[in-house]
Amino acid sequence: MASEPKSMDEIVALCRRRGFIFQSSEIYGGINGFWDYGPLGTELKRNLKNAWWQDIVRSSAIGPTGDPLHVVGVDCTIIMNPRVWEASGHVGGFNDPMVDCRESKARYRADHLQVLGAVEPAARLYAFIANDDDQRERAQKALLKYERRDSLDALRHQVRPFTALSPDERTRCVGPDAKEPGTLTEPRQFNLMFKTNVGALEDPSSIAYLRPETAQGIFANFENVVNSTRVRVPFGIAQIGKAFRNEVTPRNFTFRSREFEQMEIEFFIHPSQAKEWYGWWRDQRFAWWQSIGLAGDNLQLREHEKDELAHYAKDGAGTSDIEYRFPFTAPDFGELEGVAHRSDFDLRQHAEHSGRRDKAKYFDAERNERYFPHVIEPSAGADRGTLALLCEAYTKDPSRASGVFMRFHPRMAPVKAGVFPLVNKDGLPEVAERLFADLRKRHVVEYDPKQTIGKRYARMDEAGTPFCFTVDADTLTNQSVTVRHRDSQAQERIAMDAVAAWLDAQIRA
Ligand code: ATP
User: Fold this and answer.
1) What is the mean pLDDT of the chain?
2) What mean pLDDT do residues 101-121 have?
3) Tell me, what's the pLDDT at 1?
4) In this predicted model, what pLDDT tens digit does every residue of 241-279 receive, in sequence order?
5) Which pLDDT belongs to residue 2?
């Protein structure tokens, strides 16, 4: 059974109030599609990225073919030779059809718009954004009012994609935020890459792009990595970095941003092993998101239908999405990570466009064979991942002073522990400060000597701090402290000199 969706407004408000996420350049009214991370959000996102790097690049896993997993890292530039994007198909191909509303000036992705109305000449149609229940209800109300009816007629009224409308039907269609029909333009292509100029001259010869994905930096360096290290197929190259897309409709908080971070792996394999490595990566990646706290039924794995597959996905292996049920997508899910078999498309494209052709092929000494390796690509978003962690963690509890607590997995929690002296006197602060200084060498911990203990717990609950250690009068006699657990609110005493090791173990668990 799916639980009640959480309120996105409340989550956004908490993010702002406690310093997880702010609007970029907020003092100037912000800028649509750009977000800043505050102190707590920065630690949270960093924990996510560090865990990914640790579990991928430093993994000791054994792959499906019995080989130990071998993945190395790269850190490539955001601006690359623009020919990279011709080879990858982004220049010319990286488009979303877009629809503008002449009345409201709003802009929509054509494939996100649906229309409600009768399929008959002269019937009025009402557009709404798919998955937006409020908009759908508004469209339905407007239709009923226009047709002077109390309810929809299941035989006449239909929901159809906007992209299926004829030009005549478009003239009878009312936009989601418009009053008059016929104000939506026909879908137009819109290149999502941000353009800039490199060097002093602003002419066509100096045009360059901000990368729309980190993957191409990896493909373009494939030969460099093979020639400079001892990697042998099967192996992977991983990268974490910024990507930029001039999204038509940035929305849903950080979910669809114009500047965001990706965590991508290109895993190079012999073509005959695509199927087993694809399945292995898909399952590994799903289990990974579970391991960092998205363990409930809000996480799902969705294998793509054959007709959804991208131009490079070949038969045999496939494409799947790891999806999270965000409050704004519920009851549906939104993509966190895609795992795709990209065949040898990218390596071939770069070999062709760079003129390196057969020289770019990989020589497999064991098989005595020269070929373009196939690629399994697990491609995740660090911002969507962070947003999923925030949404999953947000837990209401009217019995607590804070009314809400953030149930982060200890490994993800931005602050691992609070350290408090019970009272700000009698030698307790000195002992607590010593414990704080000791823990701080290894983890992000906070020292808080102010206010009542209840208020201090409440602050830590909202930040999602899993443990609080309190130094009290008994500490001075028996060298023990209380530890309070965030989720159960249970307390126990542990020896002060065991605290550091205890905390390490909890975070690793
Ligand atoms: P969507 O269909 O939602 O636009 P996509 O399929 O284009 O996503 P990919 O190109 O596969 O996304 O990118 C891989 C990952 O990068 C996504 O799973 C997502 O986590 C992240 N990502 C993509 N676009 C954005 C964005 N505009 N804002 C934040 N994260 C994004």
Assistant:
1) 93
2) 90
3) 42
4) 999 999 988 999 999 999 999 999 999 999 999 999 999
5) 45
Three-state secondary structure call for residue 30: coil
Residues facing residue 195 across a β-bridge: 209
Residue 335 one-letter amino acid: E
Pocket test for ligand 1, best of 98, 326, 335, 387 (most atoms within 8 A of CB): 335
Distance 132 CA to ligand 1 centre (A): 19
The CA angle 175-177-183, to the nearest 5 degrees, is 40
Closest residue by Cα to atom 25, ligand 1, is 256
- Is 120 in contact with 191 (CB distance < 8 Å)? no
Q: Is the CB of 264 under 6 A from ligand 1?
A: no
Pocket test for ligand 1, best of 112, 262, 386 (most atoms within 8 A of CB): 262
Q: Output the pTM of the full model.
A: 0.86
Ligand 1 binding pocket includes 323 (Cβ within 6 Å): no
pLDDT of 281 reads: 97
CB 274 within 8 Å of CB 393: no
Q: Which domains does the chain have, with CATH numbers?
A: 8-94+195-392 (3.30.930.10), 96-190 (no CATH), 401-508 (3.40.50.800)
Return the ligand 1 atom nearest residue 340 CA: 11
Q: Residue 5: pLDDT above 80? A: no
Q: What does the pLDDT read at residue 122? A: 92
Q: Is 438 exposed, middle or buried (0-12, 13-18, 19+ CB in 10 A)?
A: middle
Q: Token digits for 247?
A: 């999204």
CB distance 260 to ligand 1 below 6 Å: yes
